[in-house]
Every structure is written in structure tokens, then in C-alpha cells.
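Standup notes
- DV: blocked on the single-chain target, sequence here:
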Amino acid sequence: MASAKKTSAINSINSTRESPAIKSARSVEITQVVEWREGNTRRVEDYLAAEEPLEILIGRRPLVVTMRTPGNDEELAAGFLLTEGIIEERAQLAEIIIPVRGRNLVRVKLARRAQIPSVGSRRYFAANSSCGVCGKASIDSVRARNIRPLNSGFRISADMLCKLPDLARPSQETFGRTGGLHAAALFDSTCNLIVLREDIGRHNAVDKVIGWALLNGRVPISDCVLLASGRGGFEIVQKSIVAGIPVVASVSAPSSLAVELARRMRLTLVGFLRGQRFVIYSGEERIL
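- DV (later): unblocked, structure below
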């Protein structure tokens, strides 16, 4: 468990070191509730998805406080730094530290080449941490960043795409107990699940997945599909583009700004992925 150690260096981070029991204990809380069913009531125990603040610091400077489900905090911090443009590659991360008594604290040490955000940027992050980056000033701010072109040669069949939600569900362990978490998952073109993460915030789940890829040397993620629960909002599309993901599929609707950004950046965006139906909003050439 990362929080049981004084420090955890980048090179020692392993996505499989956290046991399911420990992860579940941190991400789930138990409470007493009254259940009403067909006119009868009974007092039962219920599972709740945990929600706690996480403060990310660069050195000793506060960067952002975000509400998240505890677990995989190193990945969340790494993914956030990448998708928000604070770093552009893993080499710019010197170390990720979780203090002994810092369950809700992550301290990041950057390499000398990385730029520490201004005070104005830190205020912006704090103001928008509850909803990801849905308050971005404009699509032009994303286009102006030094982002690699997305893989134009990646393809996935429609049949494979339709299988993804069912393939992800067995790994949504905490959602199965609480019904209260979003999930993000990476699949390759043959439906192999690469990684799945859950969180109370859909943008945090995406950052955890991207952070996992960054820490394991898999960015840009040019040969995978990102499956996201809930809607395909602007922040999901923006984060995926930064990470190099060519196809994003969600089980619900995208927003107008997400569709516009996907079309400008040539990302394949799929919505309403349910059963044997989906809608392609952008980049249909990648769907066979």
C-alpha cells in the first residue's frame, strides 16, 4: 500500500502492487440505512463510494485540491500533471511522494526541465477541480499545446467496440458494491483489457488510467480505445487527446464542445455505446 511507506519513487510504482482487499477498504465505506420495499421497511447495511479530498503539491507548493475516491493516487497525480500540460513526458517527473501521515496528500518533485505553474494557474485548478477541466477558456487553448497527432492508422471493428462495456463490468469491483463510481478503461483493438480505474469523478478515473500509462512508459497511448462511463464531456476528450488516445467511447452522450474538439483534433468519438448500437460523432474512418 503506497500510503504505508514514507516515500514511493517513480521507478518503484507498480499498478498491481495494491491488493484488491486494501483498495476496496479505502474506496468503500459502510453505513446503516433504511430500505423501503413494497410497503415494508428494514434497517440494513449499505456500501458507499468513498469521497475524500486529495491535495497535490509540487515540492511544497499547493497545486490543486480535487475530490476523488482514494486509491491509485500516484497515478491520479501523474495523469493530472500530464493532461493539464504541467509535464509533457515521464522524464519530467523526478519523484512522487506520499507522506506517512498524508493519506490525502501527494507531493511531486519535478525534473529541472519542467515548468512550475504560476499562482494564477494554481487558482484556476482549485476553482475547477470538482468538475475536471470543463471550464477551459476555448478549444484554441488545447490546439495551441505541443500535442502529437493522433494515430490515423488505428482501427477497431464495430463488433469489438460493442463488447467493451460488458468486458469492463467484471473489473468494476467497487461500482458493483456501491453503484456510485465512474470507470475508465483502456482496451486494445482485439478487446484485451489493459487497465481499468474507478473514481467518484469521471475525469479522475481518466487521469488515473493515463497516469498508469505514463508511469509504465506507455504514453502516447496510440494503439488503444478509452472506454468511459457516463457522458463524453470536453474534459474527457481533452485529456485523451493529450495522452495520444485515438478513440474514445462513452456509454452516454457527448457534449457539443467535446464533439467540436474531437473533430478539430481528428479524434474518433463514440457515444451511446450500449448493446449493439452506438453513434459516431467524429473520426468514423477508425471504426471498421
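- Follow-up: Residues 1-25, 126-136 have pLDDT under 50 and may be disordered.
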